[in-house]
Amino acid sequence: MAGKKLKPSSPLVSSSFRKKVSSSYYLRSNFVSAWIIRLFFLAFFVALLYLFIYEALFYYKKPQSVLLGRFLNDKIQFEIRFKNIRLPYSFRFLYEKPCPKPTKLLILVMTRRNAFIQRNSIRKTWASDALNDTVIRFLIGDAPKSDARNQKARDEQIKLELEFKKFGDLIFLNGITDNYQNLHLKWHAALEWQQNFCKNAEFLMKTDDDTIVHLPRLDRWIEHKFRPALKQNEATYFGWIISGVKPIRDKGHRWFVPKSAYPYEWYPAYMQGATYLASAQAISAVMRHVHEVNGFNMDDIVFTGILAKLANVTLFDSGAHFRVGNALHANEKCVDGIPEAVALYGADSLAQFEEIYDKLDAIECAKSKA
């Protein structure tokens, strides 16, 4: 049998030898398995580390317009909590950290679902001059349930989804129907979003989708006038103050408010709702008292009037800056070389947005007499 190799299972091989060989195979097998397991866990750890480093170095440095598909879904439930209204809802928006860096100004735009022209006009005109520490978001509610089988409504939703992914600046309010009667619900949700996802914003501006704002000029007025005013009261609203208004009790009127919602004869003073500015402290203050008041569809009266009064929020008269309508004076007033006019409203096409914004931007301060 010279030169012939014997197998461990051969009867010519002793049992002790077979045991040694089997033990050797077993140990070698365990050794290899252990290393395979170690390599698997090492690869898993390296993959996790890579993802973490990639996220930190690249994800938040990309322009937001190209970050597609990253959004908080409707798993986190919120609730409208007026004294007379309880309504669950959720948010859907891109980016886990919509305000990842120090934010001086958050602008929340109340917009209708079908206002595609207005939103794009805002992006192409005054929003394009936003400073780096400014965040702009558009608030959109649900389509009416009655539109579920409406082809036009379905096409509108498809357009909204494309807009959502392309620009990343929409906030969907799931559970709140988008209509005029629900403006107070939309604004409640808007402030809740700010409190939870952009609380580091120093100032919040409320605008409508027909508004034109000169953002560089607004920034100068924040530093020149509005921030110094906070020394008197950190919780302050800035805007065009309206006073001496009675509730409308005519059920056929769009601004009808029943006595069950507001029983008093007069509304408190409040801010004209097209555009106004609020300090972060003002928002926190009014949100602490929301559950104590009845909600109704006059959102400016509810939040800048009734709640502001209850929360001891100051109304700072800034009508010279936040105008009613889109007209300018022949000789616009300036202070320290800064034109007073900051915001106008009343545009519904790109041409009108461009015309009004150019007019606002072109203001020249009248020369003072020697």
TrEMBL record:
<keyword id="KW-0472">Membrane</keyword>
<comment type="similarity">
    <text>Belongs to the glycosyltransferase 31 family.</text>
</comment>
<dbReference type="GO" id="GO:0016757">
    <property type="term" value="F:glycosyltransferase activity"/>
</dbReference>
<keyword id="KW-0808">Transferase</keyword>
<keyword id="KW-0735">Signal-anchor</keyword>
<feature type="transmembrane region" description="Helical">
    <location>
        <begin position="35"/>
        <end position="60"/>
    </location>
</feature>
<keyword id="KW-0333">Golgi apparatus</keyword>
<dbReference type="GO" id="GO:0000139">
    <property type="term" value="C:Golgi membrane"/>
</dbReference>
<keyword id="KW-1133">Transmembrane helix</keyword>
<protein>
    <recommendedName>
        <fullName>Hexosyltransferase</fullName>
        <ecNumber>2.4.1.-</ecNumber>
    </recommendedName>
</protein>
<dbReference type="Pfam" id="PF01762">
    <property type="entry name" value="Galactosyl_T"/>
</dbReference>
<keyword id="KW-0328">Glycosyltransferase</keyword>
<dbReference type="InterPro" id="IPR002659">
    <property type="entry name" value="Glyco_trans_31"/>
</dbReference>
<keyword id="KW-0812">Transmembrane</keyword>
